Amino acid sequence: MKKLLNTLFITQPDVYLSLDGDNIVLLKEQEKLGRLPLHNLESIVSFGYTGASPALMGYCVERNISITFLSMSGRFLARVIGKSKGNVVLRKKQYNISEDERESAKIARNFIIGKIYNNKWIIERMTRDYPLRVDVAQFKETSKYLSTIILEVRKCENLDQLRGWEGQAAINYNQLFNQMILQQKDDFYFNLRSRRPPLDNMNAMLSFAYTLLANDMAAALEGVGLDAYVGFLHRDRPGRVSLALDVMEELRGVYADKFVLSLVNKKIVNKSDFYKKENGAIIMTEEAKKKFLAAWQKKKQEKITHPYLGDKISWGLVPHAQSLLLARYLRNDLDEYPPFLWK
User: Are both 75 and 92 inside the same structural domain?
Assistant: First the structure.
């Protein structure tokens, strides 16, 4: 159980939620795990729920406290809310900003600042931790260049220019990515990003990790009442969770890339976990996907200190924290959306 930004997160499996007076009570096999006053909560998010009492749902509906149910893996299942006036205002603000490219750029640039900043510190940590394994001079030069791009992005109010700066940063970061692969270099290498289809083992894993992260982010956004399909940087496209792709930009490197690198460098995966199709696509075996997902779920349980909130939370709650912060910004509770800045 974790309280964050007036939201109660229940991450233990098989927990039943009930009401006692003005309090939420958490039960597991009739044993009371916790009790918390409801008067200062805005929402409840439950992972892998067993159920919630009608009395609790009725109480929350009357007081505009939303209850969101997710699977243990973070997939969005359902959301119980009262009168939709709060969500209507929030989503109308989201839609209005999305229609205005200049206003969209003011939010989108913070997603990109977070992404470039985090990639810069991935590079810096490599020079600190593996000075004899990487080209330190090249890494330092790239880190310096990324700092100059951040300054340009900070004042950018044009989406096309913003995408250009993001592209330049990505090219320079990707040029170093192969050096970050420290083990099994004959079987795992990175020359360029290939998506449809992935043409090597690293790209196959990166695509899988980005898909998982996008799903986690979409569920988190839906949980706070935002529309995951209407973005600011990524424009509308049928079936694409554009806002999820926006917000996950700042987590691509520090969450997904580092995770994939750890699987290779710790030899959790090997060349036998992949096979090549006739069209050249590299596919992960079913057994490899099971190993990948098990490690992904373990990663989500690791604790970090959120750089903006100062609270200790699990990696799996970072998408939810950023979604809450974005919703607060759109409600004018914050002057600016604070990206996730890792160091």
Answer: no
Reported as a single tens digit per residue, the pLDDT across 102-141 is 999 999 999 999 999 999 999 999 999 999 999 999 999 9
Q: What is the extent of the structural domain holding 68? A: 6-80
Give the Å distances, CA to CA, from 270 to 122, 178, 195, 198, 282. Answer: 23, 16, 20, 17, 13
Note whether 320 and 267 are same-domain residues: yes
Helix H or strand E segment including 121 = helix 101-129
Rounded to an integer, what distance in angstroms lies between the CA atom of residue 229 and that of residue 245? 9
Alpha carbons 214 and 232: distance in angstroms, whole number:
15
Are 210 and 188 in the same domain?
A: yes
Q: ∠ CA(120), CA(122), CA(124), 5° rounding? A: 70
Binding residues: 166, 234, 249
Picking from 55, 80, 105, the residue at the C-terminal end of a domain is 80
Task: Looking at mean pLDDT, say which of 44-58, 126-140, 285-299 comes out highest.
Answer: 126-140
Question: Looking at 47, 80, 113, which one is the last position of a domain?
Answer: 80
Selection from 2, 56, 59 nearest residue 25 by Cα: 56
**Cα-only R_g, the chain:** 21
Binding residues for Mn(2+) are 166, 234, 249
Averaged pLDDT, 28-40: 87
- The CATH number linked to 121 is 1.20.120.920
